[in-house]
Amino acid sequence: IGLTVPHITNPFFTDVVSVIQQAFDRAGYAVMLCCTDEDLNTQDDQIRLLLDRMVDGLIVARVGDGAILKRIVDDANVPVVLLDRICKGIDTDAVVLDNQRAVFDAITYLINLGHRRIGYITGTSDISPMHDRMAGYREALHAAGLPIAEELIRFGNFHEINGYNETMQMLSSHDRPSAIFSANNPMVIGTMKAIRDIGLSCPEDISVACFDDFPWSDVFQPQLTTVAQPVQAIGEQAANLLLDRLAGNRDAPPRKLLLKGRLMIRNSCRPLGAIAQSVSA
């Protein structure tokens, strides 16, 4: 089985890969893992390589616009499952999270704590999870009647150093946000380091939440509020979809499984203003 992921160092993908590998091991298949590093050319070369090695099926967390990937998938005589990221025009099985709803709930939580200027650090806008998470951010502000301050939307390109730099810029402004939401966990590490280096404290000076739970999120000081993805279910469902196709169910219509995230409230976000007074009263 060929499996491609964009970041093997991202704890989310590390955990999903482990679940998928265990599922296929139980079914008698070996997994060939490739990491694309979010590079479109690398992805396409790796998928061609996997197909040349005669893999029985593919699970792909795609990068880029998907045009070349679509041609490869259309020409491949093996079943394909899209993981985490859907691609318009590719008519195949997929397992994804309801990213828009998950971020909507997280931003609404911050708004209910009294936050009005909420910074948002995203990755890139050309993949479906980041597009949907951004939509959830905007939807939550709109639903609360709050303006969308474009200067508070920053692109961190998924990496810690970019999360650090974008956070430093926001916190150095004259009208800094009272809360920051990071769209993945490597970037939130950069955010926490920036808060420390600029001489501020979380959550006393700025509240922080992020997408993706990870084993050490409750070891952080403060413990981080996160959106947890159902990693076990995502990996198992992706494997099951592919195994079903390999068992002979090739002609069934494509299936898209939409799973739900869960807001893990810890102590990296604090209430503001009247809400803080009512909590302490």
Q: What features would you describe in this structure?
A:
The structure is a single chain. The protein is built from 9 helices and 12 strands. It is α/β, with parallel strands linked by helices. It has 2 domains: 2-97 and 229-260, Response regulator (Rossmann fold); 99-228 and 264-280, Rossmann fold. α5 (128-143) links the parallel β6 (118-122) and β7 (153-155). The chain is elongated.
Major pleated sheet: 6 strands, parallel
Into which percent range does the helicity of residues fall? Answer: 40-55%
Q: Any idea of the CATH topology of the largest domain?
A: Rossmann fold
Measured distance between first and last alpha carbons: 58 Å
CATH class of the largest domain: Alpha Beta
The CATH superfamily label of the largest domain reads: Response regulator
Find the count of extended strands (DSSP E, 2+ residues): 12
- Give the overall pLDDT as a whole number: 91
Radius of gyration: 20 Å
The shape is: elongated
SSE sequence, one letter per element: EHEHEHEEHEHEHEHEEHEEH
Discrete helix count: 9
Spans of 5+ residues with little confidence (pLDDT < 50)? Answer: none
